[in-house]
Amino acid sequence: MVLSIKFVKKLVKQSLGLLAGINPLFAVITPLHIYKSIPSLLSNQKRNVMQKITPFLWFNTEAEEAANFYTSIFKNSKILNIARYSEAGSKAAHRPKGSVMTVAFQIEGQTFTAINGGPVFKFTEAVSFVVNCANQEEINFYWEKLSEGGDPKSQQCGWLKDKYGLSWQIVPAALGELMSDPEKSERVMSKVLQMKKIDLNALQKA
């Protein structure tokens, strides 16, 4: 359970009230030190919360390259660890011993794992990752970066494929609200269907 600062402060205040009845100094000295430490304690708590579900991405041999590519684009991103094929693993998977097997990485705080599993499986549009953008500047940035080297023919309605074949939806965060407006939804949808990269201003004016 992740606790809020407000809840923790309330709990601390109640506890200090009891302690002050024993020694009045607790009511003066202790709160300042405790309150200052609460944000740090809660920050550590959030970092230690395990992510329950992790997307697992199958590549041929490009897992490490792809992980570096994605972490170079998104903020709050990093490579977490790299595992390599052991002798037993290399025989089972028919991959070179010592070569990269999996790469765990984070983009925007979300953990992913990439594996070099060979050419058996390919990405399809059946699975895509949505990037919610605050404004047109963000839409332009992520569209340009992620579409680099990808297939232009796959670009439609805010969707694109990157150079590894993975599909992304680069959309404004306000799209859901625009699409759910009974007075505008039909016009908004009509505009979206004519676009490759989303033009937020055009949708807002629809």
Main pleated-sheet profile: 4 strands, mixed
- CATH topology of the largest domain, by name, is 2,3-Dihydroxybiphenyl 1,2-Dioxygenase, domain 1
| N-end to C-end Cα span | 43 Å
Main sheet strand line-up: 1-4-3-2
Domain count, please report it. 3
Binned, the helix content reads 40-55%
In a few lines, what is going on in this structure?
This protein is of the alpha/beta class and 206 residues long. It has helices at residues 5-22, 30-47, 63-73, 87-93, 136-147, 175-180, 185-193, 200-205; strands at 56-59, 78-84, 100-107, 110-116, 128-133, 159-161, 167-172. A hairpin with a 2-residue loop joins β3 (100-107) and β4.
Layout of helices and strands:
Elements: H1 5-22, H2 30-47, E1 56-59, H3 63-73, E2 78-84, H4 87-93, E3 100-107, E4 110-116, E5 128-133, H5 136-147, E6 159-161, E7 167-172, H6 175-180, H7 185-193, H8 200-205
Parallel strand pairs: 1-4, 5-7
Antiparallel strand pairs: 2-3, 3-4, 6-7
In words, what does this structure look like?
The protein has helices spanning 5-22, 30-47, 63-73, 87-93, 136-147, 175-180, 185-193, 200-205; strands spanning 56-59, 78-84, 100-107, 110-116, 128-133, 159-161, 167-172. The chain is an alpha/beta fold. It has three domains: 5-47; 56-116, Signal recognition particle alu RNA binding heterodimer, srp9/1; 128-205, 2,3-Dihydroxybiphenyl 1,2-Dioxygenase, domain 1. It has a four-stranded mixed β-sheet with strand order 1-4-3-2, covered by helices on one side. A hairpin with a 2-residue loop joins strand 3 (100-107) and strand 4 (110-116). Helix 1 runs antiparallel to helix 2 (30-47). The longest helix is centred in the N-terminal third of the chain and has 18 residues, at 5-22.
